[in-house]
Structures are given as C-alpha cells and as structure tokens.
Amino acid sequence: MCPLSVQALLGTYMCTEVPGEFVWRPGVLTQAVTRGHWVLLEDVDHAPMEVVTLLLPLLESGTLTLPGHGDTVHAAPGFHLFATQRY
What we know:
Helices cover 30% and strands 30% of the residues. By secondary structure, it is of the alpha+beta class. It has helices at 6-10, 28-35, 49-61, and strands at residues 11-15, 22-26, 38-41, 63-66, 71-74, 80-83. Strand 1 and strand 2 (22-26) form a beta hairpin.
C-alpha cells in the first residue's frame, strides 16, 4: 500500500534533459480520469485532508482541477472511483 499524495494523484512538472525545460507528467488519478479507468482508493479515511479536498469536486461534478497546471479535467465515460475505509 502506498500513501496518497496530491502530486502522485494529480501529477507534477518534471525537468527534461534540456536545462531549464519542464514537462507536465500526469499522475495516476489524472490519467484514470482522462482515460475512463476505474480507481480504488483504500483507507481513504486516513488520507491527508488535501487529498480528500481534491476528491470532492470529482465526486460531485466529475471534474478534477489541476492546480499549478491551470486545467480542469472532465471525467471520461467509464470513469469510476471506489473508496474503502477502516472501521
């Protein structure tokens, strides 16, 4: 099990072999949303509040905002988000 982080879920800018050049690398959640994949998040009740805050608009309106990248991604057909929690 890997801990949830906003960068891992959304993505980040990565440097390239060209000095001073950066490219956007989408995270696993961004890729799943744009491709219409299913996502399972385990123990979401133990996720950092910033991750929970990120997930709310996705659950309510099917949109994912990418801060720092300036985009809003709409869930592709077939996208589903499942989450488990501990008792």
